[in-house]
Structure of diphosphomevalonate decarboxylase:
Amino acid sequence: MSLDNNPITARAHTNIALVKYWGKKDEKLIIPNNSSISLTLDEFYTETTVNFDDNLHQDIMYLDNKKVNSIKSITNFMDIVRNLSNINKFAKIISYNHVPTSAGLASSASGFAALAAATSKAAGLNLNDKELSKLARRGSGSATRSIYGGFAEWKKGTNDKNSYAVSIQNPVKMDINMIAIILDNQPKKISSRKGMKISVNTSPYYNAWEKQTTKDLETVKDAIYNNDFTALGKTAELNSMRMHSLTLSSDPSYLYLNKDSLLVINHIKALRDKGIECYYTMDAGPNVKIICQSKNIKKIKSELLQSFDEEKIKISKPGEGIKYL
Ligand code: DP6
């Protein structure tokens, strides 16, 4: 079969971790120290088209209509697919990100999940979700979970074969929404890759994190099965702050939160004082995501509008898994 001029397009949505992945035991294969749980979001996604072409002498990539010059991580990823499929052609990759790049909204999750799906299919491989999840993992850990819609769990495993995500629940039964406040859409100064490495190597609390996260994972999983919004929200918020305290306790110490993140957190506390249930979570960037039920969206939004412009506030519902377009 000729692979030329057979462009394949895939869409993957980003996900927000409710129980975070923070730290690797194998940096090359991206095997995590702890399992994690996420919710895939409908609002943020990446669409990627891959076309293998005999005439190319290297991979080329365009992101949002701009040529990407340093594509080492992409080429390394493409090499994995070339090895798996025994092909030696290069590819043209055209990608559109409907996610603020590198601002802690995990564009790498939707990015590598979409790339894994499009590239593997364009290379003639017919991977099932588990295989796709393993492949996406080689690009970025959080991408492992973006293969699935709804709630997913990345089971940490111990090696390349047994570290992959599974679906926990899709469609999602719980009434759950995620309000993202986009405080900064600039690339972050300390990538999650770098940040987690510093935490693993220097935070005296890292072992405690691993232990606690194992418990948080069970609590969140039970909350999903029992449709217990309160237990899910509370534990996700605690788990997120436990992750951020690893950054503070590292050497050198670093911080993803900025003053606007704290402002959002204070708004959330004020809402809770008024009896409006909502919780916050943050990844490796300043943006805060609020976990809430539909009935409270309006009230939460009007509280946030006291400090932030409407276009900075994005409301997501649970999203779908990988889709070929
Ligand atoms: C805080 O998946 O971006 O979002 O595997 O090094 O590419 P690499 O890291 P990445 O880290 C995500 C960290 C997190 C938590 C999470 O999504 O679980």
Observations:
- The chain has two domains: 8-173, 177-316.
